Amino acid sequence: MSDLALVLNSGSSSIKFQLVDPERHATDEPFASGLVEQIGEPEGRVTLKYAGETHTTTAPIPDHNVGLDMAFELMNEHGCGPAEVEITAVGHRVVHGGILFSSPEIITDEILGMIRDLIPLAPLHNPANINGIEVARRILPDVPHVAVFDTGFYHSMPPAAALYAINKDVAAEHGIRRYGFHGTSHEYVSRHVPEMLGRPAEEVNQITLHLGNGASATAVRGGRAIDTSMGMTPLAGLVMGTRSGDIDPGIVFHLHRSAGMSIDEIDRLLNRDSGVKGISGVNDFRALGELIEEHNEDAFLAYNVYIHQLRRYIGSYMIALGRVDAITFTAGVGENAANVRADAMANLENFGIRIDPERNAERSSLAREISTDDSPVKVFVIPTNEELAIARYAVELANRSR
Ligand code: AMP
């Protein structure tokens, strides 16, 4: 084995980790993977998957320090920890890079300070990411640590797409602009498309649709993102599992003034109790599909609102790009829900989009085409792999810094 990267995705009460060989094929299992969960709760749990087996430890996990120590102990105990395998680099998912970061960075004290300065833009996410970085740097002080930003891919979006039409002084003072998120996934998938088309990346215009629990659409011209559906926060754009996506901002004032809801209550409503869940009661697409089969009207309505908004974005990006060579579906829903793909692409033959129903219905974990051979716009399903993308960046930067 050449290099192994440890990829960490640190949330407020959990840490997802993977040990990844960056040269492996996208569909291969990671070398090892696991999850530290319920940090700060009375009973925490660490799960490790390695060599076809799953190992679990349960104990109180007061903080991220203890959590990562426990994960490393479990990995060492089963022969895949830093005591046994050589880790070339640690890649950290960092949600918000603001306008400071356009690409991954080796983490120094200065870079960490800059990530800390961005906390006001991502008060829920960046502190947890920073926590993970600090803990991992303590445990692995001699290994390069690399930050990979969710926003990086959107750093060079044209101002017309990035700016909101609000008072420019207020916007500048408070960092209000479209940053975009899921960038690592959109970039990973969009880089694969020119290969599938057999054309140079500079020539390819494409739309990528990351449809998971969170969901976003991105328009990419010649490898560069020119627009994306998430905004200053990941609440904007498409309808998601529990997030509303785009709504009239006047609704917030109305809920506050007329319904007497506090800002925190509205935040919770729009982030956790809206989207598909808000209309149907369930946020998981498999559960939604089951309800639809039982002819549940709310589920049907939630699905239709979801598809309507998705098509709205696809249409607007077709106009923004002028010519579209490929549309790609990825993430949990995009990779698995053939009905979502079929309904999102239905009746668009006049726009050069022709889906092959048999190809679309086929289940596979591989990147594949689901349009007809004569479809002018190619439609693909390409499984995303953010951990592999982060591992590749981490090892590349670590090797360059040596
Ligand atoms: P992600 O955030 O990418 O993990 O995606 C999670 C979403 O993908 C959830 O809404 C799941 O219900 C959905 N999903 C996963 N597998 C399937 C499947 N086989 N059919 C439909 N939806 C699925």
Automatic annotation (TrEMBL):
Gene3D superfamilies: 3.30.420.40. The keyword Cytoplasm applies. It comes from the Bacteria. The keyword Mitochondrion does not apply. GO terms for cellular component: cytoplasm. ATP binds at residues 16, 210-214, 284-286, 332-336. Its main location: cytoplasm. Coiled coil: none annotated. It catalyses: acetate + ATP = acetyl phosphate + ADP. Pathway: Metabolic intermediate biosynthesis; acetyl-CoA biosynthesis; acetyl-CoA from acetate: step 1/2. It is found in: Cytoplasm. Mg(2+). Can also accept Mn(2+). Keywords: ATP-binding, Cytoplasm, Kinase, Magnesium, Metal-binding, Nucleotide-binding, Transferase. GO terms for molecular function: acetate kinase activity; ATP binding; magnesium ion binding. Substrate binds at residue 93. NCBIfam families: ackA. Homodimer. Belongs to the acetokinase family. Catalyzes the formation of acetyl phosphate from acetate and ATP. Can also catalyze the reverse reaction. This is Acetate kinase. It comes from Corynebacterium meridianum.
